[in-house]
Amino acid sequence: EESCDFVKEQTVDVESKHEFITETEEVKTTESEKEEKTKTTSRHKVVTKVKEYHWKVTVNYSLFAFPGNDPESGKIVLQSREASTVIVTTGGKQSPLPSKTINRPIDLSLTWLLQNIAEDSFNCSFSINRAATSCRTPRQNEEIYAAIIFFNKMMDWSHRIIHHFVRVAGIIDTGTDGTPPPSAKPESHVDILSVNDNEIFVPVLPLFENLAESAESKAPSSSDSTNSSMLISLGEHEDKSGASPLLPIADINKFLSKQCHTLSCALKKLEESFPPSSAHTLISAPEASLVLLSHHIVSIAKYFCNGVECIEEMLRSQLVSAIGKEIQSEDFSEFFLFHNRKLFKNEFAPKPFCHAVRRPEHYPDGVLSIERKETGVFSTTKNNDPIVTFMRRIEGSSSPMFFPINAATSVEFTGERFLHAWICHEFGKERESRRGGFNLVARARQFSSFLLLIGTVSGPDSFDPQHAIILQNKDEVLIPLLLNQLPTPKEFKDAIQSLSPEQQRFAKAFRSMQLESSVFGVCAVQLKPQLEVLLGLPHNALTKEIKLTQDLLSLFIDYQIPSDLLSFDG
Known about the structure:
Radius of gyration: 43 Å
Order of helices and strands: EEEEHHHHHHHEEEEEEEEEEEHHEHH
Largest sheet: 4 strands, antiparallel
Distance between the termini: 108 Å
Helix content: 25-40%
Structural class: alpha+beta
Strand content: 25-35%
Number of helices: 11
Strand order of the largest sheet: 3-2-1-4
């Protein structure tokens, strides 16, 4: 809480910085008729009367801890002080600061810290549940996630404390615009910005001990034994066998003793440099101590987060060194492909998405595949490497399918159908870059032609084409595929959990429509058999009639000739 009250108005005489000097020469004649010259020097200064306005600025703060969510219930005051000083302004009787300001409290929840301290022995009881499914590494687990969140909040709280007292120290400069009043006397003071924790030892270090190298140099001493002066104890978790790579409890206590010693020295220096709490100053030794401790808390939090990241990076480097390379999503796909060949039978094993467009007992007219685009200069995949999918083959004679060519006409088609399921491995950072990383590639052979339809499977027996193209005579088309992923069932359930029942029903119905109409489909229609049926020609009549087939295709593409005009009436 801060307040600014008017005290008094005072008029002071301010001397000018400039001095005017006047010299007067006087000539006198003595009795002996001699002339004597005398000089008189007078100095003048301009004195200006200035009105000064005195304001009393009071700052009151309190640092306390309290249980629950009621600050007034059972609070324990750790430190509090009410300080005041006088600000002198000129130029008008206008308050330099607001008459009263109540700042928002700077609070920090200590729940996580207290949960990791045993109630009976007050020992640290932090541990990582390695049996949990969410535990991956010493860094990637729920317990460390919660610890890092707490230390980040602690850093933010400490930074706000430092900023608050720096702002309080600058209240005088803010009220006077940095210009001292005319009646101010020069005095020395210590800047709060000079307070830092550079000389305080931080005991949070990611250190491991090589027992083989230190066994000879390490000898037990009386100072290493556990006694009442030790600062911490691991209790039942303490490893007495000496096989742990962690530092012994005695060394940890030495680190903490070093921290306490350097912290005491730093606090003593602040008491000698800053005025006591009884002085009429806004910043005294207690406030400087709070700033120092806040800096130290920030250092501890940074060292902890950096230490955890250091251990994670060490394990990652060991894994990369053991494997010999840094794993990418392409390498992960090859890993699964290698093991799928061992786990599945040949008829169930994943196969490359590559199909020949052909009639039974005929040479293929073309090739249809989905290929992976090269992602960069250092990519390990080949540019023409097709994706690998799980596939189910359905006989074409089982049930026909239809696709519309306009609002009134649908075309029935049969043939072999292949249902594919593709598992795309990707890391989180690659999701945006992998959206256009695959191509649908269609190639036609020389003297061959077919119609390629691309769309979605809208039902069990319906195909909704969106695009179509005729490929012939060594044509090759590469169509980029945009992979817009739908949310997983778990993500969808979590997203609609807070919605109203009506909104949930609408979201589920819309998702059902998306799932039913988002199945990507490709249909290849061979043109020579259709021309033979249309013209009433025998089967395979156009197989060797290359020139005639090309002329007929050009004719039907340029002119929309009805099929009735092509029939023979006899």
